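Students often ask what a holo structure prediction actually looks like on paper. The answer is less mysterious than it sounds. You provide the chain, you provide the ligand, and the output is a string of discrete structure tokens encoding the 3D arrangement of the protein together with zinc ion.
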Amino acid sequence: MVARFTLEVFAFAIVRAMELITILNQCHHHRGFVYQHARFSPDKKTIEVDVRPRRGATAVCSGCHQSAPGYDQLPERRFEFIPLWGFLVFLLYRRRRVNCRSCGVVAEELPWSDGKHQSTKAHMLFLARWARKLSWKETAESFHTSWDRVCEAVEYVVGWGLEHRTLESIRAIGVDEIQYAKGHKYLTLVYQIDRGLTRLLWVGKERTIESFQGFFTVIGDQLASQIQFVCSDMWQPYLDVIREKCSQALHILDRFHIVAKMNKALDEVRAAESRKMAQEGHEPLLRKSRWCVLKRKENLTAKQQHRLRDLLRYNLQTVRAYLLKEDFQQFWEYNSPHWAGMFLDFWCYHTMRSRIEPMKKIARTLRTHRTLLLNYFHARKEFSSGVVEGLNNKAKVTMRRSYGFRTFRILELALYHSLGKLPEPVLTHEFF
Ligand SMILES: [Zn+2]
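The corresponding structure tokens follow.
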């Protein structure tokens, strides 16, 4: 209470003494405009600062960005600025209209605002930066503003960034899908995965041929023809688009997805066998074995290791499937595509004779995609594998943080904002 009181008196004194104007001139100065007067609103919750044009300074046309003769003045508007010590700050200004020779009568250009939003550019950048560290809701609460205002801020900053980003020399891309909302709603995400630069390039609705093609429409044929590596999962629409649009690129199947598929098959085997054993009245050997067989051996706890050793003594389908899965890990250790190919053929041959249907299905899939799988070894030195997985995990975190507003548009904004590495509008002063 005392601290709050002191702070208020302090802020009050500063505003009184017009020190605030000096500070504003220092950090948020715009040629052709002056800060005139700062005061508290009657309820003492807001600081209002009058802005007026500098005497003799001509207005700039918002259409062509040239000086133009004045025409009239619009009613006063409030532009929200960065809050100060718990007080909201507003700049008050009566915008002029100009009579421009090329554009006619239009509103003047304002250096602190894009004209469309109620917030100043500085305020929007301030909120948007915090919205990358906190959830949008937390950002709104922390700075006494609304969720909509935070959303607008992110929209402005992302829009600016997309307009000003450079898309030259993309050598490697990865495409992946991500599920959002309940039911089967997917987004297609395209990442740049060059060694020097990894970022989200594009967000598409659904995971169809059309959605992925949208990315190539954005970058154009010229850039697409320079892509040398494409990393994807085995989703057929993606494979089709890559073949059509990036025929010159080396297409690699993402290791992470293959491991995930293998784990899924193993889990099916275990669940089915466990059910069958229970039905036939056997000892429940497989109970609580799920993580023993799914986790990598080096990640098991001591108890799970013990459990696994115990389990391996039995001639169960689950055990045999587990051993096949563990064997397959070797595949990724090869350097030469030739030897990797030999190993793959050998592994598939054995698996096809295992009489374990889910594993046989995996073997058939791997055989179908043999060439793409071996491309991994042709390209492995070129970019770090697992980078797509890493980016996708970040995308999932972003989605979790922004839960509660799962429309495509909002997710798209949130994803670009946190993963796009977009350039930001430049301010003359770093406020934070
Ligand atoms: Zn003009």
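The chain has 16 helices and twelve strands.
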